Amino acid sequence: MYATVPALHDDGMTVQMVAPAISLPEETERLWPLWLQVELTLRRAIRTGALKAGEQLPGEHQLAETLGIHRHTVRRAIESLTGQGLLEIRRGRGTFVAAGPISYRLGGRSRFTDNMEAAGKIPSARVLRSQTLTATEDVAANLALGSGDKVVMLEILRLGDAIPILIARHFVPEDLFPDFAERFADIDSITKTFASYGIVGYRRSVTRLAARRPTAQEAADLGQPRTAPVLVWASVNALPGGRCVNYDLSVFAAARVSIVIDDDG
Questions:
Q1: Distances from the Cα of 165 to the Cα of 3, 23, 49, 224, 234, angstroms
Q2: What is the pLDDT of residues 78-97, one digit of tens each?
Q3: Residues 6+ apart with CB under 8 A from 112
Q4: Between helices 71-83 and 34-47, what is the axis angle to 10°?
């Protein structure tokens, strides 16, 4: 059964959107917290195909009115499902049923663009922050720098089909790459930015993975609730001679990727 509700198109025009009619669970499940009942209802709609991948949900107010509950209850259920990777929130557009995690391959030469194109997604990037600063103990150790040495920090939001996938934080030695952030802004590729300095053939020599909860800023940048975990990828890129040129500390929206480790020698 379907209901017609108003929705805002990308061009700003209001149109009619057909959405599944949603109702709360049966009597036996109404002993559960109300937000959990809403979560269960939406989860069932997704799993049965009543809500399909890529389909937009009605807004919080519309869902709350349909179910006869407060919109904050709806919001809690949506945040829970977003954290589980079943829904995704697109800034300025609304909430959509997620298509499922992207297979993301990690290897000595794996690149974000290659992974997105292999998944049939359009890759894009946006610089969030950049600055020159004194290397922390962690950054200095990973780049084999001395105490007090400077690094250029470049923080990039990487997206697939306009959906945030990860925040990449690149730290490069300032003495080698003083204008790295400015060059990247013109070139829009980490690999090609290194190439502009004559640096080619570097490989990922060390990779560490860990899970945690995001900071408030990370959650906002990734468009996910703070309750949803992130996967932190710390890697060091080095030249064939061993000189470390890039410490990459990236934060993935864990529900949006499925990591595949490549043994590429």
A1: 32, 32, 25, 11, 16
A2: 988 887 878 888 777 888 89
A3: 123, 125, 158, 165, 166, 168
A4: 50
pLDDT greater than 70 at residue 10: no
Beta-sheet strands, E only, within 115-173: 123-134, 150-160, 163-173
For the beta carbon of residue 264, count every other beta carbon within 10 angstroms.
12
Residue length of the chain: 265
- The one-letter amino acid code at 55 reads E
Q: DSSP class of residue 28?
A: G
CA–CA separation, 147 and 151 (whole Å):
11
Residue with tokens 């003083």: 178
Q: Letter for the amino acid at 259?
A: I
CB atoms within 10 A of CB 190: 22
265 token code pair? 């020698």
Residue with tokens 């410490």: 247
pTM: 0.73
Q: Which domains does the chain have, with CATH numbers?
A: 2-97 (1.10.10.10), 102-261 (3.40.1410.10)
Q: Are 136 and 153 in contact (CB under 8 A)?
A: no
E strand or H helix at 2: strand 2-8
